[in-house]
Amino acid sequence: MPVIFHEDSRIFHLTNDYVSYLIRIMENDQPEHLYYGKKLHDSDGFARFHEEDIRSHMAIALPEPSSLSLQYARQEYPVYGSGDFKMPACSVLQENGSRVMCFTYESHRIVSGKPSLKGLPATYTESGDEAETLELTLRDRLTGTVLMLSYTIFRDYPAIARHAEFRQEGPETVMLERALSACVEFPDMDYELLQLSGAWGRERYIHTRPLEMGLQGIHSLTGSGSSHEHNPFIALKRPETTETTGEAYGFSLVYSGNFLAEVEVSTFDAPRVLMGINPVNFTWRLESGESFVTPECVLVYSDRGLNGMSQAYHALYRKRLAKGYWRDKARPILLNSWEGAYFDFDEEKILQMAREARDVGVELFVLDDGWFGNRNNDWSGLGDWCCNMEKLPSGIDGLSRKIEDMGIKFGLWFEMEMINKDSDLSRAHPDWLIAAPGRFESPSRHQHILDFSRPEVVNYIGDLVSDLLRKSRISYIKWDMNRYMTEPYSAGLSASRQGEVMHRHILGMYSLYERLTTEFPEILFESCAGGGARFDPGMLYYAPQAWCSDDTDGWERVKIQYGTSMVYPTVSMGSHVSAVPNHQVRRITPLATRANTAYFGTFGYELVLGKMPEEELAEVRKQIAFMKKYRSLIQIDGTFYRLLNPFKSNEGGWITVSPDKKEAVAGFYQRLNKVNGSFLRFKLAGLDSDTAYSVRFNVCGEEKGYTAYGDELMQAGIVVDRHNLDRIGGDFASIVYEIAAV
Ligand code: GLA
Q1: Rounded distance between C-alpha atoms, residue 151 and residue 148, angstroms
Q2: Inside any domain, residue 181
Q3: What is the domain-level CATH number for residue 699?
Q4: Is residue 16 within a helix (H) or strand (E), and if so which, with residue range?
Q5: How are beta strands 418-420 and 271-277 bridged, if at all?
Q6: 3-state DSSP call for residue 644?
Q7: Fewest C-beta atoms under 10 Å: which of 364, 379, 413, 736?
Q8: Helix or strand holding residue 579 (H, E)
Q9: d(CA 352, CA 451)
Q10: Domain limit, last residue, from 286, 320, 354
Q11: Which domain holds residue 674?
């Protein structure tokens, strides 16, 4: 039984082969957090984890002589208005102006499997025995507001999914001012906080810092996406934790809007982790009979280092967050028109690019921005999702058929939530954009955000897009989002509901994804947001892959994909080989390195094949053949290990190993070449020590290799010959090793 209930002590023990999570209902009927970490034997004595001691200034939560104080009790869901003075998980404003609330235990139920979250993306189960869910129902006696805390423990993963639901069962209207998804409290502060932060073109770099007393954390207020700046993920790791050893706790929010991830360390050295929707500019009006569901927070515990944590997220998100037709399928190798053509194309040029792609073995041609409305640059056209017949006289339906007739699939770019003021849509519905009355409407990339908090707007765009999809042969959609939300205000909501706009926009976007993925289940969706501003678990539920970053440079991508892999599986990472000098950093990297990086993702090209000399085209053909051979291993079946950290050294490296450990592909990447440098070893992971493997690699067309046992490859490592790196090009040289049991 994954959820054990000790009736006498009122303790819930959520456990599987990996973790234990303990909750106690305290004497004052509020839920207390007792333990979270490596699996423990079940015991009826877990109440000893409750520690108490009256200290100066502490408020007591029950009539004296009780000594229960919420100031030190570790809580499951701290509520504002008690003797707990740290940041709360929720705050509720009542009709009389009070924010004093007290949710106490009313009942609980334990259900097999995992109920879904209404209107929100979430992890799921396919059969009842995959997980068990504890739902704790608490009630505020005065207002009748019910708070349900939900905990799902998965059988096969060291993961617990949490969320909260508020239901107003009393007569009055209450305002949620803060309604986070999860709170987890720890007994000691000997941790580092790890986060994935950056900016456009350098998303999800790994940053760590020691915990300090007081507040620390990250957040996003960008509204339309989880953001380039911070990913909705944090981890607490022990200072000594490495990629392969030691403890780490991950917190990942299944949400694409404003979020908060905060750690508050008390002056008793106890950290409280809070995660959920950012309370800034958030309020939710809850009238009698209404309910509000928070996004899901997925907790992962690892005692096998950061790789152990990441592998749990990869497996869970690959199998039980992503869904639908493409979930278990290797992804088509594509060519995207953007960096090759930008806005400058006509039908002939597109057909030519598609033909060239087909000829080298590409399987899907993607027409990016510029095909619709009056769209010849980024000043106009967004919102007018009808083909620009001047550029493409056969229309999208005709063009898509011509491309399919070539024997290659066709995909199309959209930016469904966006509008240019210079568009027919804006002229017809000037009030459909998000803007505050009487205030300046800040443009960004000359565009504005359609108000997706209004169902009629979502429906209008949904109808337009569905109609086009029904008429054409479209196998793939790149759904972009190229600006953040400013002046958040909806003309469709009353004054008392303006604090709901940003969350409602995200719900509207999710509802359109739900509609389109339901109506067109075989279309492969790739989410995108000016590169990687929407690389989050919420999007992964609908779109099983996401464009990692607009930075396509071969070395920059090693860092971006390395950081992204902290949470997200390789199969979710949109990664393309682009032209040199690279359009973002102007750097020249070897063609082999650009491919060697992109292999560890969905793989594709974003350049004009027709401009490449014949010897490069021959190399491209080989790259495509390589990816076709290994994509099931890399994307679907394999286990991914980070090996060499490119943020800490001149080298980066990783490996994907098949479940039976008989096959693996490893990538080694060097930043700058060294003169007379020291010797280099590349230590692998995940192989079987007692199996002999053939190790094959290619240096400028010359096949090299040898045979070695797994223990040698993992303990002593592969000797990387610097002369080979010189031959490959020196700076930004890389080698991919093909490893197979002999
Ligand atoms: C964003 C995307 C790019 C491309 C352009 C088109 O920047 O990240 O890949 O689609 O939009 O405008």
Answers
A1: 10
A2: yes
A3: 2.60.40.1180
A4: none
A5: unpaired
A6: strand
A7: 379
A8: none
A9: 38
A10: 320
A11: 644-741
